Every structure is written in C-alpha cells, then in structure tokens.
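TASK: fixed-backbone design
INPUT:
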C-alpha cells in the first residue's frame, strides 16, 4: 500500500490498467468468439450442407461459398474482439488519465494559488499535503518556505520597531536639551553640550552597530581568514583593556597555554569578539571583581573563555542575551551605553568563522562565563 503513495507507481499503475483492460478484453472476446460464435456458425453451415445431400454431392462452388462464409464469421469475431478491447482500453485510459491529472494538477493548482497569495503578502498561507509522496514533499517544502518567509517578515517588522525605539531615546533627549536651550531653560555651556555630545555619540555607535549587524546577519561580512596564534591576540586584548580594568579596580588576567595555538580565522574579527566580551565583563563586574581570559585547546577547536565575577545572568535571561536589543536590565545598560546588539554581532561573527559562542552563569551575582571556539589551523 505504501508503494501506492508514490506518484511514479500511480503513473505505472494507470498505464498498466490500460494494458490489462485491453489484453483482458481481447482474450475474453477471442474466447467467447471461439466458444460460441464460430462453432455455432460452423454447426449451422454443416446442417445446411447435410440437407443439400450426401457429402460427395457437395459441389466445389458450395464448398467455396461455405469456406468464405466461415472465414468471414471468423474475421468479424476477431474484429469485434479487437474493437471491444480497444474501446475498453480507451475508456480505461481516459479514466486513469483523468484520475492522474486530478491527482497531479490539484496540488499544483493549490501551489500556484498559494504562491500568488504569498506574493501579495499573505505569509500565513499553507497548503494541505496531497496523498502522493512526491507531491506531498513539494507541498511540504512550499509550506516550509512560506513559514520562513513569515518568520523573516516578523523579524523585519520587529527590527524596524526595535530600531525606531532605540533611536527615539537619544533623539528625545537631544530634543529636550535643544528645546530647553532655545527656551533659555538650559545654558548652552560646556556641561550641557557634553551631555548632548554623549547622546550623539550613542546614536552614532548605535547606527554603526546596526550596520555591522545587518551585514553579519546577511552573511556579507568579508572575512580575511589566516592562521594566527590566539595567545598573542588574547595577550594584546588584555593589555589594551588593562588600564580600564585598573581604573575600575578589577583584576584582569590571562591564562594561556605554553605552546602556540594556531587558529584559522579572521584576526581582526576575533579581536572584535574578544574585546566585546571583555568590554561586557568590565561593564557588568563591580569593583574588586576578577576577570579571567583563558585560552585552551578543545579537540579540533581553540576555546577562548572570558569569565567574570560580576552581576551574572539569571536563568530566565540566559536564552535571550544573544538576541538583538536584549538587555537584562534596560535602565542599567542605558546608563552604561550598551546597545544590546554586541553579543548578537559577536555570535554571528563566530558562526561565520566556523565556531560557536555560548554563555553560562550560575545566576544573579554569581558571575558569567562566555566561551567561543574557533577552528584550529591545519598543520602542514
Ligand atoms: P550590551 O551592549 O547591552 O552589553 P550585549 O549584546 O553585549 O549588549 O549584551 C546583552 C545583554 O547580556 C546585556 O545587556 C547584559 O544584560 C547581558 N550580559 C552580557 N555580558 C554580560 C556579563 N559579562 N555579565 C552579565 N550580563 C551580561
């Protein structure tokens, strides 16, 4: 029965039906002709001949006429058999073709109609799965495509909403300051201008991040992959942020393997990821905390870990921190200037380089650990 679900077996079956009906009818008619029509005629002829006299009295002309008549009966019965068989085969052919056409065309028509509806923006369109396996597969793929289009549309709408929301806050602040200055409520002094400058910088950072985000999400970031030692990169990143760590009274350390660990990745992008993780660690770790960068080998990957003793991440927030614009504590992040897309960018960059970025935390106040992997460079 399973075979019947495959379209090709239905097509073969339909063709076979025509052949079987045709052959059966030919055989049946030939049998009926041989059993009933021809013998009856022969019997009738023989009886007629018997009445005309003794067999030796049958003249040649009468014999010839009888033979011709018998042949004629025989031909006619053959012709009838073939005609009935042909008509039967035509009927079977027509029926099976209509059935097949309906089987194939109905889902195709549905796909055509649904794709037109999707083109008009109805992304919730789905088509029912037809009985045959092949067409069910087409329909299933079509539905999957419709679903991912719906998801993309949802993301697009959400993104526009998020972006306008993100832009509105600094703009409202700038608006307020400018209006206050125009009304003479605020003096246009260095202090006010500094605050406004901060807001403009925040806007600028946000716009830059958004551009990077759109590029990484579209897979349009150009990567310059080359073998390099991750230890050196980690050392440099730690050295770069050491003054900031010292200013915040944080201990920043690197734990590196003794031997070089060559990865095949983009050094600039790797550095961007690491600086982002370290930046977050500095931002979310209170005074006297400790931040450790660890580099180790793990199978065919190099594993870079940034662990801090900071505010930690709740189990509820953990699954969302890589989503764009997600902030565990919006008010706090706003003060610190976080856009909430740093981790989204970092994760896409690691993915693009063939690695993975994950986060772990034992909970609020328990610190956080971010780990990313990069494929090791192949040894010659
Ligand atoms: P942001 O610019 O707000 O830091 P990210 O995408 O870098 O944006 O981070 C998203 C959110 O993840 C942050 O708002 C914060 O809630 C959480 N987070 C990231 N790093 C840490 C960390 N080291 N400790 C605690 N929370 C963190």
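OUTPUT:
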């Amino acid at each position: 029965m399973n075979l019947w679900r495959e379209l090709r077996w239905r097509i073969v079956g339909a063709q076979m039906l025509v052949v079987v009906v045709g052959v059966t009818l030919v055989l049946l008619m030939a049998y009926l002709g041989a059993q009933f029509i021809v013998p009856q005629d022969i019997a009738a002829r023989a009886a007629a001949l018997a009445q005309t006299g003794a067999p030796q009295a049958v003249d040649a002309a009468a014999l010839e006429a009888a033979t011709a008549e018998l042949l004629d009966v025989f031909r006619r019965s053959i012709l009838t058999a073939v005609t009935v068989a042909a008509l039967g085969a035509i009927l079977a052919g027509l029926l099976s073709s209509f059935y097949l056409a309906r089987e194939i065309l109905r889902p195709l028509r549905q796909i055509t109609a649904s794709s037109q509806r999707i083109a008009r923006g109805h992304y919730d369109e789905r088509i029912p799965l037809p009985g045959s396996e092949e067409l069910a597969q087409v329909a299933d793929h079509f539905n999957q495509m419709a679903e991912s289009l719906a998801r993309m549309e949802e993301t697009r709408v959400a993104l526009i909403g998020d972006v306008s929301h993100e832009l509105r806050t600094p703009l409202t602040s700038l608006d307020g300051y400018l209006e206050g200055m125009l009304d003479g409520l605020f003096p246009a002094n260095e202090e006010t201008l500094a605050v406004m400058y901060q807001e403009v910088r925040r806007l600028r950072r946000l716009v830059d991040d958004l551009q990077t985000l759109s590029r990484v999400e579209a897979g349009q970031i150009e990567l310059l992959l080359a073998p390099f030692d991750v230890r050196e990169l980690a050392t440099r990143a730690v050295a770069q942020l050491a003054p900031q760590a010292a200013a915040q009274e944080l201990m920043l350390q690197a734990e590196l393997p003794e031997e070089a660990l060559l990865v095949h990745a983009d050094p600039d992008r790797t550095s961007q990821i690491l600086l982002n993780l370290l930046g977050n660690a500095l931002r979310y770790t209170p005074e006297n905390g400790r931040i450790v960068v660890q580099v180790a080998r793990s199978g065919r990957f190099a594993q870079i870990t940034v662990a801090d003793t900071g505010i930690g991440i709740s189990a509820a927030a953990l699954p969302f921190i890589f989503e764009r614009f997600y902030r565990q504590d919006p008010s706090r992040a706003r003060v610190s200037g976080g856009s909430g897309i740093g981790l989204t960018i970092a994760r896409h960059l690691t993915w693009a380089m063939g690695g993975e970025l994950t986060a772990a935390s034992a909970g609020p106040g328990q610190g956080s650990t971010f780990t990313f992997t990069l494929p090791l460079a192949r040894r010659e």
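COMMENT: Residues 280-281, 284, 308, 310-313, 321, 326-328, 333, 338-344, 368 surround adenosine-5'-diphosphate (CB under 6 Å).
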